[in-house]
Amino acid sequence: MSHSVLIVMDPIESIKTQKDTTFGLMLEAQRRGWTLHYCQPQDLYLEKDQVFAANQRVSVEDNPQNWFQYQDAEQVLTECGDFSAILMRKDPPFDMNYIYSTYLLELAQQQGALVVNDPASLRDCNEKLFTAWFPEHTPSTLVSANAARLKAFAAEHQDIILKPLDGMGGASIFRAKKGDPNLSVIIETLTSHGKNLAMAQQFIPEITDGDKRVLVVNGEVIPYTLARIPREGETRGNLAAGGSGVPMPITDNEKRIAEAIAPELMRRGLLFVGLDIIGSFVTEINVTSPTCMRELENEYQINIAGQLFSALEDQLKQ
């Protein structure tokens, strides 16, 4: 039986194919004979009670100079319920337009589309805040807009990380040590002078060994991780912030943590998730468009994308 998949993503012409997880998922879908359809979030629309996508069929090739071709000269309109599956792979920021897209995809889901990840869970599971559902696996954390509380947390822990709740790629992440003269302005900046919530976490010294990306696919923990190691003089391991990615086998402790979290991910319909683990702590749970798949596949000759599409095909048989 032939299948079709709608990929909702950022502009396909701007991706870096060698490390783009969404592109790797498209390659796997095509290899399996799925028809690929592409659109951006603004191409979704609701008319009366039906959700449509203005989309184009595409083909892909693992060629960094010429990685996609449109099969339709112009966008065509398709009811979202007619696709076998829809992959929501739009990168953050997680703004109101993103939320509106999840409402449309949730309605499409009710009309028969298999949407990954589950749209309601994309809204519910903020990538920073969702760690609070697993306090036994997280560092000491405070979420607040109150400067006095944040300063008290800094005084208690002496060395902390402060970050916004809606960022990605290491953007606007600050480290503040005891007596940091910039603490007040950091707090003012992140909270917009007490209007916005921000997160403070105890600094984890094991960041020097890497911020490990652990992928969980259909509830199964991938046995390899990508350690994002900060460059010299930097706190952040994010690749977008200049960190270097080093593939390595998962540790027993990392596997134990991921396996403890996996059942809740499955309960919420989160089939493709990236956990960020530093030392013995989960610092983020990435559900919108987790990355690092291609690096692990290339290093260890494994097929992570295949695990996801096998799970989708099994669901479609039911």
From TrEMBL:
GO terms for molecular function: ATP binding; glutathione synthase activity; metal ion binding. PROSITE patterns: ATP_GRASP (PS50975). Keywords: ATP-binding, Glutathione biosynthesis, Ligase, Magnesium, Manganese, Metal-binding, Nucleotide-binding. It catalyses: gamma-L-glutamyl-L-cysteine + glycine + ATP = glutathione + ADP + phosphate + H(+). Residues 128-313 form the ATP-grasp domain. The keyword DNA-binding does not apply. Its EC number is 6.3.2.3. Pathway: Sulfur metabolism; glutathione biosynthesis; glutathione from L-cysteine and L-glutamate: step 2/2. Its cofactor is Mg(2+); Mn(2+). InterPro entries: ATP-grasp (IPR011761), ATP_grasp_subdomain_1 (IPR013815), Glut_synth_pro (IPR006284), GSHS_ATP-bd (IPR004218), GSHS_N (IPR004215), PreATP-grasp_dom_sf (IPR016185). One of its GO terms (cellular component) is cytoplasm. HAMAP family: GSH_S. Belongs to the prokaryotic GSH synthase family. This is Glutathione synthetase.
